Amino acid sequence: MRIATYNINGIKARLPRLLEWLDETRPKVACLQEIKSQDDGFPAEEFEKIGYKAIWHGQKSFNGVAILAEGVEPVETKRGLGIDGPKEGEGEQARYLEADIEGVRVACIYLPNGNPHPGPKFDYKIEWMKRLRARMQELWGQEIPTAIVGDYNVIPEDNDVFSVKAMASDALMQPESRNAYNRLLADGWTDAVRTLNPRGGVWTYWDYQRGAWQRDHGFRIDHLLLTPELADRMTAVGVDKEYRGREKASDHTPVWVEIATP
Description:
Blueprint: E1 2-7, H1 11-25, E2 29-33, H2 44-48, E3 52-57, E4 65-70, E5 75-79, E6 96-101, E7 104-110, H3 120-141, E8 146-151, H4 164-167, H5 175-186, E9 190-191, H6 192-196, E10 205-206, H7 212-215, E11 218-219, E12 222-226, H8 228-231, E13 234-239, E14 255-259
Parallel strand pairs: 1-2, 7-8
Antiparallel strand pairs: 1-14, 2-4, 3-4, 5-6, 6-7, 8-12, 9-12, 10-11, 13-14
Helix pairs in contact: 3-5
Active site: 110, 151, 252
GO molecular function, one term: metal ion binding
Pfam family, one: Exo_endo_phos
């Protein structure tokens, strides 16, 4: 089973690229972030044409997550973490979706960016990470084989970024962000990409500005965290880097882990 995560940065604008990637790589599960679409505008029929069933949690113009599964219907188990956005009266943002797919629990997350730091958006980011950890502890306690994947908006270590100095003031690299992420690993979750690439230097995001892609000025913020049941069955991980260089591409690229059949 290949489980992938892909921040698509606008599903309508990137739909040809997304369909292209799905058709060429055929992951069993594809978790999407920043679909930037309301529920009634999600192009589910386009995925059905190529053999994928979908569930989604949309929001107008911002955020939004979806889970696609090849040949099977994802069985939704949770939507949202019950935390309101940073603006008063805003309600909950579309950032968390969870489903069962062929014996594996998969959660798709789009963690808040947190900029500018300091400020209410950063406070919201840290509170959201606390809620995420609580949910992950619940899943751990149920002993469900689980993958929590998506755009975590955290650069975990210095070797996960092209320049520590360039990103030093960004919310993605603040000690509070890193500490919150490291607490997830300390709870026993396995960072799939880190495990098979311990020296770092693997990027999943390149900004549209300042020639970041052309200069390979990227960093790693898209992560796949696994329970021991899945980590023991992990056979490969990969970053589909070439898709970042295609026409009208997302600023992220797909990241995946291969899980052997038990």
